[in-house]
Amino acid sequence: MSIPSSMKVGAFTTNILVKKKYLGFYVGLMWISITAITLEFWIYWQYLWNSNSKILFFIFLPLLFFLMYITTVFLSLFFAKVMLIIINCLHKPREGIFLRENSDRDYRFWSLRSVIKKWPIWLSHKFPFPFLDNICFKVFGVKTNFSNSLFEGWVDCEFIEFGKGVIIGKSSIIQSSLIIGDHLIIKKTIIEDNAHIGAHTLVMPGTHIGKNCILAASSATTVDQKLEDSWIYIGLPAKKYRKNPFFEENLENKITHVIDTEALQAEIFKTYEKGKHN
Amino acid sequence: MKEIIEENEIYSVDIVSSNSINRVSMKFLFYYLSIFWISGWLLVVFWYDYITLLILTDEMLFKIILISLFPVIIFLSYFIFIFGCMMLSKLFLILINLIHKPKEGIFIAKKGEGDYEFWILRTQIKKLVVWLINNSPLPWMNIWSFKWFGVKVAFSDSLTDVWCDVEFIEFGKKILIGQGAVVMSSMILGNYLIIKKIVIEDYSVIGGHSTISPGTVVGKDTVLGALAITSFNQILEKGWIYLGFPAIKLKLNKYAEMDRTTLRKIDVDQSKKFKVKYEVNIDEDKKDLV
Predict the structure, then answer these.
(1) What gap in Å lies between CA B243 and CA B150, rounded to an integer?
(2) Which among A59, A63, A167 is the nearest to B18, CB-wise?
(3) What are the pLDDT digits (tens) for A115-171?
């Protein structure tokens, strides 16, 4: 929601294969969801313009626009889910490593699923308050809770599970599918309760982040990495740094800052020595 | 004595997490709806006047002029909406700050705690206006929204494309903050919410995709490299170049000594010979300088 304007590079979904026949899905979804607006406006007009006081028409007009926005989002979600159910019957989504070529069936269906999800997700992010965000994720099959904040970063829309109270930092990326060279990797990412993911981080497909874990800023996890409960991880790739003390009680007067920053950098570099932690 | 030192080291904040708001609850929708509704009335009045003027005039020339002004009217209506939102959100903020004054410190971040809930409310109301202006045709006007909410900014700063907080920050003049940088004056770490003021002084340059944690003081003429992270309460001295995590001095910034009030005029094509070590693609008329 606080994303700077020029960084809005489209909806919060993964890269897709660009094909002309996918345009039919896009335009079809947009068309269906916008036709309901005209119907609502017509009903409002008939009801309030012919009544005794025409002032009521103008007083409730801004609320009508808000209602039209919500109905477009819900309608687009409904029809996108219908399309997804039909497509999942044709080819069930599965995890694994596939080839990035037109002849690969999994790759084509993965792109098609992302195309269908783009329009509802883009619409629900267009309101400054992210209350439609979690509804979008729940409809598309991501297990999440209303106490999560998923709107400050780029989060994928399938094969992810969240616990309660997860905080995702600004400008961070949580993926469940990855393109490397000629391969496409799809794996399930699991993030458990109360995890804090710092700013500018990358979470790769297949990671399992434990409870009460903190991933420091500007770090990245690798594919299939498991982060244990209540530890702090740092660096690229993420390695264990120290145990997480910040979930204890009564620490308001004890939290201090670091005095010697050069010693801190030396200590962080020590975690990259061979045979240490990990 | 040893126990106190060890305890200090355990609880020192040597990592940086983030400050996203979780527990987004639906009662904030009340504030948003009322702000949009009342600003929407301004728009309704504006469009009603325009359309009745268009329909009721008899002269053809006046009608043609009004129709040709239609794009300007659309442009103006967006800014009238922003104006209405700014007024109303400032009104809400004044009322909320009377109930609970904003202050710095370390608080508990759980549902039901006063400081935490009021912090969420303040950021949500302020970010509405910042979001609206970021999505308008003139995104560099977000300096207006910062000034309106009491943050000390100058118009010569360049603050677009930055994930910036809207309270407890002080900017100097002629600052450049790179794209994708995260400037946060509040941070959630475990169960605790840390709020501390950031001061960025004149002429400094902050690199792209860097992270500035709460409490840092960036001195005059310092340069923070790209992808760097500063730690909690760090002071960056003036005139140095910093890099890494946590940010450490690299070398002196030699351009800090330049006097900015006088302009220097240097003639480059004077008859000075240049030594060329590698193959260089030189223009025809400058080959006699080598």
Answers:
(1) 31
(2) A167
(3) 888 888 888 877 776 777 788 888 888 888 877 777 778 888 889 999 888 888 888
Judge: B246–A265 Cβ closer than 8 Å, yes or no: yes
Cα(A154)–Cα(A8) distance, integer angstroms: 10
Contact flag A247-B10 (C-beta cutoff 8 Å)? no
Residue B248 with chain A: CB contacts under 8 Å = 261-262, 265
Query: What's the count of helices (H) and strands (E) in chain B, helices before strands?
Result: 6, 15
Cα B231–chain centre separation: 19
- Tell which CATH architecture fits domain B28-255: 3 Solenoid (2.160)
Please state, in angstroms and rounded to a whole number, the distance separating the CA atoms of residues B192 and B116. Answer: 9
Interface test with A, best of B4, B5, B18, B42 (most A CBs within 10 A): B18
Task: Report which residue type is found at B173.
Answer: K
Helix (H, G, I), strand (E, B) or coil at B225: coil
Q: Is the pLDDT at A259 greater than 50, yes or no?
A: yes
Query: Is the CB of residue B198 less than 8 Å from the CB of residue B52?
Result: no
| pTM of structure | 0.81
CA distance B49 to A58: 13
ipTM above threshold 0.90:
no
CATH topology assigned to domain A142-244? UDP N-Acetylglucosamine Acyltransferase; domain 1 (2.160.10)
Bridge-based pairing state of the strands A202-203 and A173-174: parallel
Helix axes B70-99, B28-56, angle to 10 degrees: 150
Ranges of chain B whose pLDDT falls below 70: 1-10, 22-25, 257-274, 276, 290
Sequence-ordered list of residues with C-beta below 8 angstroms from that of B14, at least 6 positions apart, any chain: A258, A264, B231, B232, B246
* Alpha-carbon distance values, B36 to A232, B30, B46, B79, B130 (Å): 42, 10, 15, 13, 15
A173 vs A171: CA distance, rounded Å: 7
Partner residue facing B248 (CB), from A4, A148, A261? A261
Residues of chain A with CATH 2.160.10.10: 142-244
Q: What is the pLDDT of residue B201?
A: 92
Q: Are B246 and B232 in contact (CB under 8 A)?
A: no
Of residues B17, B40, B130, nearest to A198 (C-beta): B17
Local confidence band at A251 (pLDDT 50, 70, 90 cut-offs): confident
